[in-house]
Amino acid sequence: MPKLQTNCENYCRLGYGLSAGLPRNYCVPMVMQIEQHRLIEALQVNSPNQSERPSTAIINLLVIHNISLPPGEFGTGYVRQLFCNELDCSIHPDFAGLTGLKVSSHLLIERNGGLIQFVAFDQKAWHAGISEFCGIKDCNDFSIGIELEGTDSETFTDEQYKSLKDSTRVLIKHYPGLHAGRIVGHSDIAPGRKTDPGPCFDWQRYLDAL
Ligand SMILES: [Zn+2]
After folding, report:
1. Whose CA, among 61, 91, 116, 187, lies 20 to 30 Å from 147?
2. How many angstroms separate the alpha carbon of residue 24 from the centre of ligand 1?
3. What domains can you pick out in the chain, each with its CATH number?
4. Residue 21 confidence class, pLDDT cut points 50, 70, 90
5. Ligand 1 center to residue 127 CA distance, Å?
6. pTM of the model
7. Which residues are part of the catalytic machinery?
C-alpha cells in the first residue's frame, strides 16, 4: 500500500506519492457519501418546495426524470431557479405554464455531471405529482427524485451517467428499502401524463453499471 501523501480535493480525496511509482494524483474510484441525508459531493441549495414524509413512510423507490429550461437548452440556471421559486416566468414564452408551479427534486444532475441537492433525502421533494407505483399512490411520500438535465429526444452525457451511477450506489447503500428493482422513470409512475426520462435514457447502461 503506497504511503498516503496528499489529498485530491476534486475527485476522490485520496492521492498517492511518486515514490510508489504512481502519478502524484492517482485517484481511486470515487465513493460518494451521505451525511445527515445529504450527499457530500452535491452542491446544497435549499428548495422551499418540500415537506415532511409521512411518519410511516419508508424510502423504497427511486424516480428518474429529465428537465431543461427552456426545453433543450442546458446550463441556463433556470431549473435551479424554478426549484427555488425564483424563476421569472415572464422572460421566456416557454415559462408561461410554469407560473405558480411549486416543484423540486432531491437531486439535479447537470450535463457536466455536477450534482445539486435541493431537499434532504429524509424529506419529501415535490417531483412526482399525481403518481402510483404497485398500487400505492403519491410516490413523493416514499421516493427519491433525481432529475437529469436533458430532454426526451437527446442522449444524456457520459458524465451524467457516471454521477447517476455513483449517487444511486450510495443511495442504495444508505437506504435499505432501495435496490435496483425499485428504480423507475417518471413515465412509469405517471403514464399518459409524463414521458420522462424518455426513450434516449439508456436504462440498460445505467442498471448494468450499478
Ligand atoms: Zn419528471
Report:
1. 91
2. 42
3. 1-30 (no CATH), 32-209 (3.40.80.10)
4. low
5. 6
6. 0.88
7. 147
CA 186 to ligand 1 center in whole angstroms: 5
Q: For residue 89, report the distance from its CA to the centre of ligand 1, in Å.
A: 19
Per-residue burial over 91-127, b = 16 or more CB atoms within 10 Å of its CB, e = otherwise: eeeebeeeeeeebbbbbbbbbeebbbbbbbbeebbbb
* Cell, residue 153: 429526444
Contact 62, 142 (CB under 8 A): no
Centroid of ligand 1 to alpha carbon of 32 (angstroms): 24
Radius of gyration of the chain (CA): 18
C-beta atoms surrounding 165 within 10 Å: 16
Reported as a pLDDT band with limits 50, 70 and 90, residue 4 is: very low
pLDDT tens, position by position, 47-88: 999 999 999 999 999 999 999 999 999 999 999 999 999 999
pLDDT recorded at residue 3: 47
Closest alpha carbon to 150 in 198, 116, 115, 186: 198
**DSSP assignments along 61-98, one per residue:** EEEEEEE-SSTT--S-SHHHHHHTT---TTSSGGGGGG
